[in-house]
């Protein structure tokens, strides 16, 4: 047997830790004058920044943070919309050796306090938009260094120890930054949405961040210099690692302070935006934008959708606009998307309904992941690839989190048997594509029969008037649980309860048809995820009063 080990070890010449910091270094060296950031709200803000300028500012940010005492494993929290400063933090914070903690911009003060305490944040970079929370945070965390980030679009009274630009200007050593010594070092901390309890702190490492960023490029066949519109919150899984993907491709970050359909459509047309990602709610906003703004878009645009698969109605609207939508799947624990519904050539010949059905699956594993399967619950035995046998989706690979911060028990449970258990139930189709049927906690058990809430929702989405819907369980004396549907319709549309029930009867078995219909605004998180726990509570409270359950949409 040949010895392939002795004298063949790792050294600085043949091994360097993977890190997305290298991506911005290369783009600044190779494409220094290429545009890196555009910030244009068509009213107040309008400026561009090159890759060389961005790299310089990231080094200044790193030096400024180190002068404030930030060192390895110190948490730097940021609470900002999708502004240029947020893009810079994706590089400048890890370059300081600190760990980037991007906070959900819709957190209430209680959740925000928890995250700051749990993460032991030493610095908080906070945008003017959240000035109303600053005073409470200062009172609660007197030792927290608060940096006030602002731009000319938002003018509020100054708060904190210094402004973001003062922090940048405080730098005098552009070499005072570092790459990680170990690619397993933490690069960021992301808190789960906490829709069912206390948020969990998910820790990412440099290796996973670099690999997920590259995997995004491979999954999307992303060319050099893409024009990327930031419709996805940068706080959500570090923008699905796209700040690092765009740097690797020397693309353009088109920043966006707020989600406004008219603004987004105008920016897409003005800058020939090529790529964007979002939850279904944003795609629907674009599809229902002003006709004149949609007509101005004459080039091909690619979009990723996650959270819920593309409905037939949404897909048809987007295709009319020349948008190519692909469904991806992931979780906070896996850096964002790690599976993709890879489109086959023969799908193009299908009608919209059949194509939407094909594109609705969670698909296949991303290029740089290792394992994606569906196991019978509590085992590592794969389900049959028949589209019927249901089990729990499981993932493994280098793009899975280090674990949950300060929670060894939860980490060990998540990684049982060498797989990350997602909590999603699905099936494996004969072609090998995997499709989610429901969240484990969202399955409705009615009279001993399992009902997939997603299956019922997909049927409801076939009705053109429905903008958003959610199906949850309501207590029932006879059946134990019955499905109840919450429906949000488009402005200007009308829809009657009887029409919804009849539509469901045509497409579903009788026991799966919602027993009650509620027309109301669907509560969602800032990333577009439906807050089903709120709807379940509402269903429980009103289930005993049938007369109050059915609400006339008009």
Automatic annotation (TrEMBL):
GO molecular function: ligase activity
Any GO BP: fatty acid metabolic process
Domain AMP-dependent synthetase/ligase per the UniProt entry, residue ranges: 26-405
Domain AMP-binding enzyme C-terminal residues, every copy: 455-529
InterPro entries (alphabetical): AMP-bd_C (IPR025110), AMP-bd_C_sf (IPR045851), AMP-binding_CS (IPR020845), AMP-dep_synth/lig_dom (IPR000873), ANL_N_sf (IPR042099)
Alphabetical list of Pfam families matching this protein: AMP-binding, AMP-binding_C
Family matches, as PROSITE patterns: AMP_BINDING
Keywords per UniProt: Fatty acid metabolism, Ligase, Lipid metabolism
Family recorded in the similarity comment: Belongs to the ATP-dependent AMP-binding enzyme family.
Protein name: Acyl-CoA synthetase
Source organism of the structure: Psychrobacter urativorans
């Amino acid at each position: 047997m040949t010895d392939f080990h002795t004298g063949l070890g790792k050294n600085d010449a043949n091994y360097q830790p993977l890190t997305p910091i290298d991506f911005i270094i290369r783009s600044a060296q190779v494409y220094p004058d290429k545009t890196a950031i555009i910030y244009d709200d068509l009213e107040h803000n309008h400026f561009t920044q090159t890759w060389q300028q961005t790299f310089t500012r990231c080094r200044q940010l790193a030096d400024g943070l180190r002068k404030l005492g930030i060192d390895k494993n110190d948490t730097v929290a940021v609470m900002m919309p999708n502004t240029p400063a947020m893009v810079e933090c994706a590089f400048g914070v890890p370059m300081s050796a600190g760990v980037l903690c991007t906070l959900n911009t819709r957190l209430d003060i209680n959740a925000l306090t928890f995250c700051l305490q749990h993460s032991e944040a030493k610095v908080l970079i906070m945008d003017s938009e959240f000035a109303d929370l600053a005073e409470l945070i200062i009172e609660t965390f007197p030792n927290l260094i608060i940096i006030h980030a602002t731009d000319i679009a938002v003018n509020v009274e100054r708060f904190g120890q210094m402004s973001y630009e003062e922090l940048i200007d405080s730098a005098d050593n552009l070499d005072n930054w570092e790459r990680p010594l170990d690619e397993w070092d933490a690069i960021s901390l992301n808190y789960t949405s906490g829709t069912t309890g206390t948020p969990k702190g998910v820790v990412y490492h440099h290796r996973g961040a670099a690999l997920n960023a590259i995997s995004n490029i491979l999954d999307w066949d992303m060319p050099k210099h893409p024009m990327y519109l930031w419709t996805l919150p940068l706080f959500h899984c570090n923008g699905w690692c796209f700040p690092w993907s765009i740097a690797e491709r020397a693309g353009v970050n088109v920043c966006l302070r707020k989600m406004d359909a008219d603004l987004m459509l105008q920016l897409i047309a003005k800058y020939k935006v090529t790529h964007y990602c979002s939850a279904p709610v944003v795609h629907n906003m674009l599809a229902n934008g002003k006709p004149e703004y949609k007509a101005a878009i004459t080039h091909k645009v690619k979009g990723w959708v996650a959270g819920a698969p593309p409905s037939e109605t949404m897909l048809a609207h987007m295709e009319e606009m020349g948008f190519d939508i692909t469904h991806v799947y992931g979780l906070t624990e896996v850096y964002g998307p790690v599976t993709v519904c890879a489109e086959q050539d023969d799908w193009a010949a299908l009608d919209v309904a059949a194509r939407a059905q094909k594109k609705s699956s969670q698909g296949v594993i991303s290029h740089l992941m290792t394992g994606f399967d569906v196991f019978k619950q509590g085992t590592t035995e794969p389900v049959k690839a028949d589209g019927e046998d249901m089990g729990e989706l499981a993932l493994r690979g280098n793009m899975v989190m280090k674990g949950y911060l300060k929670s060894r028990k939860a980490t060990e449970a998540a990684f049982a048997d060498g797989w990350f258990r997602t909590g999603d139930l699905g099936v494996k189709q004969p072609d090998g594509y995997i499709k989610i049927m429901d969240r484990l906690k969202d399955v409705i058990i009615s009279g001993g029969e399992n009902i997939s809430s997603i299956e019922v929702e997909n049927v409801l989405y076939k009705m053109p008037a429905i903008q958003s819907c959610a199906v949850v369980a309501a207590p029932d004396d006879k059946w134990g649980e019955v499905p109840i549907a919450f429906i949000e319709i488009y402005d200007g549309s009308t829809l009657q309860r009887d029409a919804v029930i009849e539509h469901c009867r045509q497409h579903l078995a009788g026991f799966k048809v919602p027993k009650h219909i509620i027309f109301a605004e669907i509560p969602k998180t800032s990333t577009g995820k439906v807050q089903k726990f709120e709807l379940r509570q509402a269903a429980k409270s009103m289930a005993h009063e049938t007369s109050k359950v059915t609400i006339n949409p008009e």
